[in-house]
């Protein structure tokens, strides 16, 4: 099995300088690529000068995470793509458990390792943690992270199990599956496009796995922090996109309607917190969703649908009303 580690970069010279050494040291036997999204700093020159064995792919424009990878991966030949954020520190033997999972679980099309916080290495990291799930209303959460509550890693998720979505911070995906799905949906630009991809993969009969015996450390927030209004806009809008595209009509329309009400409550909460820019971000997300609704609706017509996509009814209700902030309490296997 040939794995290619593919790092998408945009003006990340400092990140490449910091994190490339671990990737190269602990990824022997793989090809490493840097896909550059039309950076204006010295990223490309830095890689070319210091790492001549790294393959550099230069995109003509910054089309975000989705388009950037779609364009770059056209030039990568491998059985499995490892899509790796530029702010991830990998660890010794991180690849072997992933390879073993692909070998022993032939239905696995997408795999992610354990994602830990680089700044607090005994805690999970926000983006992905120990594998992602959805509630009934399409809100994403992870084993190890619900909203802003992050669990300490005490070995509670040192397992291999099927999950609903894998994080784009470190995602392994079979190349033939990636292209059979048409890659990422470029209308997302960034954020939650990996959830949509994993959802579409499962609609097509594939499975997504988490492998806790492999771990990496993610800095996080190097492009957009968790509390950036632009990220709020993209997360709220793209979540509505995914519901519209990936559920049958009889499920999608009631859920979209309820989501609009729940999102309105979230906007009011931001007002009470005096975070007016986030409130406006949710409003803009809804107007963008309305403007693109027909386009998203047409994409869903080609899909088959899995009916059981969620493991909890409402994480909003569980978290804020019942104060349940631990995955193993929220979801009992």
Q: How are the elements arranged and paired?
A:
Elements lengths: L2 E7 L3 H13 L5 E7 L5 H8 L4 E5 L4 H10 L6 E5 L3 E2 L5 H10 L3 E10 L14 E3 L5 E3 L2 E2 L2 E2 L9 E4 L6 E5 H6 L12 H11 L3 E12 L10 H18 L2 H24 L3 H16 L1 H8 L14 H6 L6 H4 L3
Parallel strand pairs: 1-2, 1-4, 2-3, 6-13
Antiparallel strand pairs: 4-12, 5-13, 6-12, 7-8, 9-10, 11-13
Helix pairs in contact: 1-2, 6-7, 7-8, 7-9, 7-10, 8-9
Q: What are the key terms here?
A:
single chain; Spore Coat Polysaccharide Biosynthesis Protein SpsA, Chain A; 40% helix; 9-stranded mixed sheet; 333 residues
Task: Please explain how this structure is put together.
The protein contains twelve helices and 13 strands. By secondary structure, it is of the alpha/beta class. The chain folds into two domains: 3-218, Spore Coat Polysaccharide Biosynthesis Protein SpsA, Chain A; 229-330, no CATH class. The strands form three sheets. Strands 1, 2, 3, 4, 5, 6, 11, 12 and 13 form a nine-stranded mixed β-sheet that branches. Strands 7-8 form a two-stranded antiparallel ribbon. A hairpin with a 2-residue loop joins strand 9 (145-146) and strand 10. Helix 7 runs antiparallel to helix 8 (249-272) and helix 7 packs across helix 10 (293-300). The mean pLDDT is 95.
């Amino acid at each position: 099995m040939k794995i290619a580690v593919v790092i998408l970069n945009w003006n990340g010279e400092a990140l490449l300088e910091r994190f490339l050494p671990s990737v190269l040291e602990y990824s022997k036997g793989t090809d490493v690529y840097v896909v550059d999204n039309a950076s204006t700093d010295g990223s490309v020159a830095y890689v070319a000068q210091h790492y001549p064995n790294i393959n550099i792919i230069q995109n003509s424009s910054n089309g975000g995470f989705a388009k950037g990878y779609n364009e770059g991966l056209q030039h990568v030949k491998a059985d499995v793509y490892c899509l790796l954020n530029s702010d991830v520190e990998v660890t010794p033997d991180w690849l072997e458990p992933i390879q073993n999972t692909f070998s022993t679980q032939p239905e696995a099309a997408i795999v992610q390792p354990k994602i830990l916080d680089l700044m607090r290495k005994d805690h999970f990291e926000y983006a992905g943690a120990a594998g992602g799930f959805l509630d009934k209303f399409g809100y994403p959460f992870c084993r190890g992270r619900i909203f802003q509550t992050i669990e300490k890693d005490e070995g509670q998720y040192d397992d291999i199990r099927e999950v609903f979505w894998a994080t784009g911070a470190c995602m392994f995906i079979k190349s033939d599956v990636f292209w059979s799905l048409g890659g990422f949906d470029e209308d997302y630009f960034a954020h939650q496009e990996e959830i949509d991809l994993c959802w579409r993969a499962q609609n097509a009969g594939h499975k997504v796995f988490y492998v806790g015996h492999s771990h990496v450390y993610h800095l996080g927030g190097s492009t957009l922090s968790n509390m950036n209004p632009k990220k709020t806009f993209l997360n709220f809008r793209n979540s509505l996109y995914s519901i519209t595209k990936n559920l049958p009509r009889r499920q999608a329309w009631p859920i979209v309607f309820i989501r609009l009400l729940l999102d309105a409550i979230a906007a009011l909460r931001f007002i009470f917190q005096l975070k007016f820019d986030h409130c406006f971000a949710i409003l803009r997300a809804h107007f963008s969703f309305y403007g693109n609704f027909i386009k998203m609706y047409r994409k869903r017509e080609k899909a088959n649908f899995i009916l059981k996509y969620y493991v909890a009814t409402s994480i909003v209700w569980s978290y804020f009303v019942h104060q349940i902030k631990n995955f193993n309490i929220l979801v009992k296997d």
